[in-house]
Amino acid sequence: MPSLNTNSSQTAAPIAITLGDPAGVGPEIVAKAWHARKAEKLTPFFWIGDPGLLRDCPTQSIAAPDHALEVWQNALPVLPLEMNGPVTPGAPSAHTAPAVIEALEISAALSQAAKASAVVTAPMAKDLLYAAGFNAPGQTEFYADACAVERDRVVMMLAAPMLKVVPITIHIPLAKVPEHLTQDLIIARAITTDAALRQDFGIGAPRLALCGLNPHAGEHGKIGDEEEKIIAPAVDALRAQGIDARGPFSADTMFHAEARAGYDAALAMYHDQGLIPLKALDFHSGVNVTLGLPIVRTSPDHGTAFDIAGKNLANPRSMIEAIRVAGAIAARRSAA
Fold it and tell me: Is 157 helix (H, G, I), strand (E, B) or coil?
């Protein structure tokens, strides 16, 4: 399997994995990741949740993260949380929302205090959390707020062995992408991406390729002018700052093997423009990495999968890769 260009050595503190939605596949893939710990040579981790939700897996409740290292080889360490009621796989419930939020808060505090070397967030459904006081659009923004970093300064990267991609605009309607796409936004996302590729992935001279917004990258203004008015000037500004940015390129020719060999990360102008090729190339190994934070945070690149929860059908590969990437980034930062 191609490398993600990260250092896989272990760090001193274990990784914190959040509860996620307890009715989803999170508990299952965490347990499967623990069972794969030796074969995959994973950095030790602990789960913040209810040990009763982890089926077919030995568990040990711990009082503090450092205790995880003592039990790691024989049981999955769990920092226990109460669910405030029963959990039925595949049936999300509002009564578990406070625990889901509490797990996020605990993970942020532990990572900022260096009690956890990194955070891996299990999949969660946000719609039930808002009524319980969750006031961020998603987990990326939650950790930005927790770390006192401006939300616009954090970047969502989706990383798989064959492709790293950063969407410039994320969870907005496609019709609103042009009005949200600005030179300043592209430049800010690209600067954060360049810095993270250097610091967290060990790429000494990152190459960034920017997608065009329109078909054929606008064909010199014949099919839209965002490339000439917004994207190309942003590329010029980045190059003036010493960042190896290229484009805009026609997105339909950017993701085959020969094209991918020419860059280290692709910057897509909207969500699906980047995530469709990544998931088509390697659906199960994709990892969501939050760039621009003082802490390390990753997550599997899939959702709660309520339809298969509790059926022992969930593929743990993305969770395993999220743990692996988090551990490698944390080790690289620790050694810097």
Answer: strand
pLDDT band with cut points at 50, 70 and 90 for residue 336: confident
pLDDT at 169 over 90: yes
Q: Mean pLDDT across the stretch 198-216?
A: 96
**Mean pLDDT computed over 5-9:** 40
Per-residue pLDDT at 295: 97
pLDDT reading at 2 higher than 80: no
Q: What share of the chain is helix, strand, coil (3-state, %, to 5)?
A: 45, 15, 40
Q: Buried b / exposed e across 149-187, counting CB within 10 Å, b at 16+?
A: beeeebbbbbbbbbbbbbbbbbeeeeeebbeebebeebb
b/e map 102-141, b = 16+ CB within 10 Å: bbbebbbebbbeebbbbbbbbbbbeebbeeeebebeebbb
Burial 206-237 (b: 16+ CB within 10 A, else e): bebbbbbbbebbbeeeeebebbeebbbebbeb
